[in-house]
Amino acid sequence: MDYINNTQTEQKNGTNVSSVFTHQVLPVLYSIICAFALILNGLAAWIFFRVPSSSALVVYLKNMVVADILMLFTYPWRVVGDLGYGGLQLKLIVCRYTAVLFYLSMYTGITFMSLISLERYFKVVRSTSAVSSILQRVSVAKAFSLLAWGVMMFFMLPNTILTNQPMPKDFSCMALKSKLGRRWHEISAHFNVGIFWVAFILMVFCYTSIACHVYRSCKRVKQDSSEAGRRSNRSIFSLLAVFVFCFVPYHVCRVPYTLSQRPGAGFSEHSRFILFQLKETTLFLSALNVCLDPIIYFFMCRTFRESLLQKMSSVNQENRRPSIGTGLSISNL
């Protein structure tokens, strides 16, 4: 977990190129995705929380919406801070609260992505097993959701409580932490990295197994697998594609970046500067996840898709009255 510490990095590098990227380019990019994500996730929340939690998948997707909205709440604070407003007091808020909320939301969302992949695997590949019937229960999905939020809060919230030291002369987020806070920061960071890699391996296994199962099923019943396969692939791999695009680059990049921050690591100032730019760029890709998750909702959840299309159809009919007999029904889309 890398807290925002741009000023210190720029001073070490002795260059203002970092400030151009972090204080001019990134704020604009974060503002753009914040605006789009607010619309998309607002629409997703409006649809999801008007439909009942009739399946485990819907329960997990609703929790993903909550995680995305919490994550989205942290973006304006980062934008204002990167633009140089708010002074040290805003930096303190970012270090103690919004940075913690950002990573809490991100890794909670990753957890729900892995739970969705596991639920899909048992429903499609192991549909006749006793475990599948248990995982399909809404009550079990709600219990897993509460457990996921509880575990993530247990590991993340102490980072807020233990960031309690007086404001240092040379500001850095780590300097605000107590000795126990620095140790807990390290523990929670390793825990989050473990969550990511376990989720990644689980998702690759589950969706590879699902794809093979769907392919064998299409061949066994001698159906035209081209169109059916395309529909299945869109549903199956939308979540995996978003996961790989948003989160894999950051977690690959953070390994050399973290090593470069250790004293005596042997990295040149230029190498540290390049790694810092890569870390900030890949972290932005992780933040972009809040704009791409609605794609997952559309392809994976029929309830969400039909509700959205129904709302769009009703709006079009109101705008084109009278239009009896000219509209497409949901079943045809």
UniProtKB/TrEMBL annotation:
Domain G-protein coupled receptors family 1 profile: 40-297
One Pfam family here: 7tm_1
Stated name of the protein: G-protein coupled receptors family 1 profile domain-containing protein
Keyword Transmembrane helix appears in the UniProt entry: yes
Transmembrane domains' residue ranges: 28-49, 56-77, 97-118, 139-157, 194-215, 236-252, 283-304
GO molecular function: G protein-coupled purinergic nucleotide receptor activity
Record's subcellular location: Cell membrane
Topological category with respect to the lipid bilayer: Multi-pass membrane protein
SUPFAM superfamilies: Family A G protein-coupled receptor-like
Source species: Culter alburnus (Topmouth culter)
Keyword annotations from UniProtKB, A to Z: Cell membrane, G-protein coupled receptor, Glycoprotein, Membrane, Receptor, Transducer, Transmembrane, Transmembrane helix
Domain of life of the organism encoding this protein: Eukaryota
Family membership noted in the UniProt record: Belongs to the G-protein coupled receptor 1 family.
